[in-house]
Design brief:
- The chain has 246 residues and is α+β, with helices and mostly antiparallel strands.
- The chain is 15% helix and 29% strand.
- The chain is built from three helices and twelve strands; from the N terminus they run ααββββββββββββα.
- The strands form two sheets. It has a six-stranded antiparallel barrel with strand order 1-2-3-6-5-4.
Length: 246
Amino acid sequence: MSPLALVISLTLGLAAEDRPAVYHPSDVRQMQVLAAVLKRRVAYFELQLRMQKKGELLDPSRDGYGAVISAHRIVAPSFLFEDVERITVVGPRGRTPGKLVLSSPDRRVALVETEAPLEKIGLEPSAPAPPESRALDKFAFALVSTTPDGDVLVGTVTDDGSAPELEGHVRTTLRLSAGMPVFDESARLLGYARTAVWDHEKTLLVTPAQVEAARTATRAVAKSPAPQAPPWWTGPKEPRLRDAGP
């Protein structure tokens, strides 16, 4: 039996209530089932870039990953969508167009929304991991890829994000990029890789709490925009002197 056929048979042969509440990396069978579960919770993006000013493409396309968080929405790092003209979301059973509905570059958070429910292409949302999943030495799991033969990477949590310098970002031993999501031992979302290829630090995650903070901040700005400060290069305004007259 091929590896793909084995994964499918294992997944179909286990009802939801029969799947392990906790996946352990020492159990090969559990890791095969976990890989199949995560491939339904991780979206793959095919991204078509806009033409540049001189009529040339710096890169004709880009790809990356995102975590499914609802029936129509996927969260991913914002840098994936810079200069993107067309977003295609790919799941185990097909593909569908997506559109960018939120981008917060400072927080590296973006939300992509699809018109059709993601379940139509074989994707489903993941619950956020609880705080105890961020404890030191807890297992962390990520896919190598969403392809049929993509295996699971195993790491551990090394920082829960409480240190001031981490600003809430969980750190694991996994070195990931392209927005690959990371899950706890019950296949709940710990976060996604915040790092781009040019970053030196490859082990930090954007957590569900940070995603919600970005969404909340965006809604607040939309309701009552803050006054914009003048550009720094304009300098302070000179006081106007009244003409004293003769």
